[in-house]
Amino acid sequence: MAGGRCGPQLTALLAAWIAAVAATAGPEEAALPPEQSRVQPMTASNWTLVMEGEWMLKFYAPWCPSCQQTDSEWEAFAKNGEILQISVGKVDVIQEPGLSGRFFVTTLPAFFHAKDGIFRRYRGPGIFEDLQNYILEKKWQSVEPLTGWKSPASLTMSGMAGLFSISGKIWHLHNYFTVTLGIPAWCSYVFFVIATLVFGLFMGLRIFLFLPSIEQNRRSEEAHRAEQLQDAEEEKDDSNEEENKDSLVDDEEEKEDLGDEDEAEEEEEEDNLAAGVDEERSEANDQGPPGEDGVTREEVEPEEAEEGISEQPCPADTEVVEDSLRQRKSQHADKGL
User: Mind listing the pLDDT tens digit for each residue in 212-246?
Assistant: First the structure.
């Protein structure tokens, strides 16, 4: 009897002890902080961080089963990011439709590699070993980069991001109407159709009202340009006329200088001729009347007498020289006219 009574008491004591241990251990385990994720969420405001350094990005959706299967592998890959010297990020396409449009994501999950602003699409499995080998062995070098208009940083993909962002806002608004407010889906579609028509009419009216002012501004700019061109042409014509006048004045001055030089040469020639005539006259006067000197001169050899006669200028030669001087003066007068 005593043994039968002790059994239930021991069982109760053991149960109480286990409960006490569990109660004391529970708060300690609850007090442990959860492990912080090394994956950095990317948004439209901080996505430009991937333009510097080396990155791996994952595009996912919370409702995507394939994305959920790779979450643990992606977290393990991010933990080794410091060893691999790479940053790891993720993009929720539901919350960030603009980024999904910028990278033109059409399938989920989607992986991208970025190295100093050059992007490449990673099409391998989202397994830790494959991702690690992709970085260590630099397999990304054999992948064609997204260049030109395909680059997420290009102007074209920026416009695509804007379109995807607008479509995402419309989708969120549609869910708000149908889920939160309980409005039927066809009412939401009618609302968006009417809103599209009103927006189109508003933009058309705005263009219609502002078009005349735009056309007037364009015409005034064209008229201003035409005036500037006309002023420039007039300035060119004036400058050409001044240059022509200056050239004519220079030509006249050159002609006058040439005429002065010709006159100086003619005056020199006349002076030389006059000096020659005076010398001849003085020599003739020096010979004097015939006398003893004449006798002695007759005794000179005939050859010396002939040489003296040949050296004396003939009157015919002086006439030719005077004629040539008169002709030069008449030519100079004609030039002056």
Answer: 777 777 788 888 888 888 888 888 877 777 777 77
Its pTM surpasses 0.70: no
Structure tokens at 178: 């149908």
pLDDT tens-digit readout, 167-226 = 888 888 888 888 888 889 888 889 888 988 898 888 888 787 877 777 777 788 888 888
6 is catalytic: no
Find the catalytic residue in 6, 67, 187, 314: 67
Q: Is 64 a catalytic residue?
A: yes
Listed residue (88, 97, 90, 81) closest to 58, CA to CA: 90
Pick the CATH number of 40-150 from 3.90.700.10, 3.40.30.10, 3.40.50.620, 3.40.50.800: 3.40.30.10
How far, in Å, are 38, 95, 111, 289 from residue 74 at the CA level?
A: 10, 19, 11, 145
